[in-house]
Task: inverse folding
């Protein structure tokens, strides 16, 4: 099985919080670098889901193992506050753009501040080697609504 060689041109989070729920907007309406948490909620906050849009350019066709990592960058111990999500996708057409949606279930936000959402691709064929290539990073800012 061939592995796809990928690059990412866009990585966007798509969500809008209404009455304590995350509502996906699949027309890219509501794209923002900010998550507003209702004032009555306390940290740590666990949202039901966050949807992520990524536009890939596949240099070669094949299967790709992908991982998202959400890290709190404003915290005292940023490495302790991270979540990981893994996906597998098939890229059939080489040298073509392909849009993909990913749903991150129950992301936890321990506090207000900056977060990084990073997309990684597994590049090693050897299972013992855990080699991942960073494809894209997007910042997020989490704050309480006043």
Result:
């Amino acid at each position: 099985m061939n592995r796809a060689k990928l690059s990412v041109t866009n990585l966007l989070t798509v969500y809008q919080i209404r009455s304590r729920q995350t509502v996906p907007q699949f027309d890219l309406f509501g794209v923002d670098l900010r998550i507003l948490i209702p004032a009555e909620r306390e940290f740590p906050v666990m949202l039901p889901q966050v949807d992520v849009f990524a536009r890939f350019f596949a240099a070669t066709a094949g299967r790709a193992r992908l991982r998202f990592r959400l890290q709190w960058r404003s915290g005292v111990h940023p490495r302790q506050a991270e979540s990981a999500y893994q996906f597998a996708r098939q890229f059939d057409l080489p040298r073509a753009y392909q849009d993909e949606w990913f749903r991150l279930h129950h992301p936890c936000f321990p506090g207000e501040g900056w977060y990084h959402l990073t997309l990684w691709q597994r590049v090693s064929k050897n299972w013992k080697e855990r080699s991942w290539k960073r494809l894209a990073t997007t910042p997020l800012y989490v704050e309480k609504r006043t």
User: Anything to note?
Assistant: The longest strand covers residues 132-144. Confidence is low (pLDDT under 50) at residues 16-26. The chain has one domain: 6-144. The chain is about 0% helix and 60% strand.
